[in-house]
Specification:
Chain lengths: 126, 188
């Protein structure tokens, strides 16, 4: 059915003859001198084509590199900040330890400096 | 090709036409006028417009002869330009202006050995398709190009060509069936 219909269509669409004298009318309408259209010159340099071809990948690569560098910088800053905070905490702990040591030394000094109680007192006590 | 000329002779016609031989160019016109005029006539549905279009196509060929590589290329180039010029023309001119050509159809349609009524009906229904679909159907069924060549001629992907053909065939078939039912109705 489908093939029949297509054949029918082919028959219905057989080319029609052009009107009489058509070719002569075309020939009369031709310009006296043929303005030859120049053949398309080969592209001098395929720069534009190269740019068109590589622009997107190049932009993508550049964006990738920039984002990598940016990421690295952010990570460096973060690491520096962490190290700084750790250093500050360590110095605070050291100060605390020195303070405690100093207090202990003070106590020891006081103990050494205080004279021992008299001996009689000792005997009375026993 | 419209004329049955051996390939070598046809190619020499092209070479001579390129060299400025007017008679050779006239030979080229005669070889392809049937095909180009038919595309114009079936696309535009007006004899005067079809002749203007065909003339324009051959004038363009005259200017671009140096680009044409062979007679085969010439035939393809002419069909391509004719179909695209016709589509452009239909875009510029309102659709209704292209319709009233029934009298032209009666004059220009050749005598056929098959069912002339059906052929005329199909011809008329083809005029109801969109310009792009009509061009696809003409290049496929009038000019017998394969779908890849139709796509190349109209700058259309092959799948678009296939879907145009499928849709147009369905539309034409259903309209034909409808028309036949109307024709068969017995007046009461």
């Amino acid at each position: 059915m489908s093939e029949n219909f297509e054949n029918e269509l082919r028959r219905a669409l057989r080319p029609i003859d052009a009107p009489d004298g058509f070719a002569e009318r075309v020939m009369r309408a031709l310009p006296a001198q043929r303005d030859r259209e120049p053949l398309p010159a080969p592209e001098a340099l395929p720069t534009r084509r190269l740019v068109r071809r590589f622009a997107v990948p190049a932009a993508f690569a550049a964006a990738l590199v920039v984002s990598m560098l940016l990421g690295q910088h952010v990570a460096d800053v973060q690491r520096q900040r962490t190290e700084q905070q750790a250093g500050l905490a360590a110095s605070r702990e050291l100060m605390e330890a020195l303070k405690v040591t100093s207090q202990k030394l003070d106590l020891a000094y006081q103990a050494v400096k205080t004279p021992p109680p008299p001996a009689g007192d000792e005997e009375n006590r026993t | 090709m419209g004329l049955n000329v051996p390939q070598s002779m046809a190619d020499s016609l092209l070479v001579r036409a390129r060299g400025g031989d007017a008679a050779a160019f006239a030979g080229l016109v005669r070889a392809h006028q049937r095909s180009v005029y038919s595309i114009g006539w079936r696309m535009l549905r007006r004899r005067d417009a079809a002749e203007d279009l065909a003339q324009d196509v051959f004038l363009q060929l005259y200017r671009k002869l140096d680009h044409i590589e062979s007679m085969e290329h010439c035939g393809f180039w002419l069909r391509r330009v004719a179909a695209n010029l016709a589509i452009d023309w239909l875009r510029r001119v309102p659709y209704s202006a292209t319709q009233p050509l029934e009298e032209g159809a009666a004059v220009a349609a050749p005598l056929r050995d098959d069912d002339p009524l059906m052929s005329r009906q199909l011809d008329r229904l083809l005029g109801e398709l969109s310009p792009a679909a009509r061009a696809v159907m003409l290049l496929r069924y009038q000019e017998d190009l394969d779908v890849a060549d139709v796509g190349a001629a109209l700058d259309m992907p092959v799948n678009t060509v296939k879907s145009h053909i499928k849709r147009s065939l369905t539309q034409l078939r259903s309209r034909m069936i409808g028309a036949k039912l109307v024709d068969c109705e017995v007046p009461t």
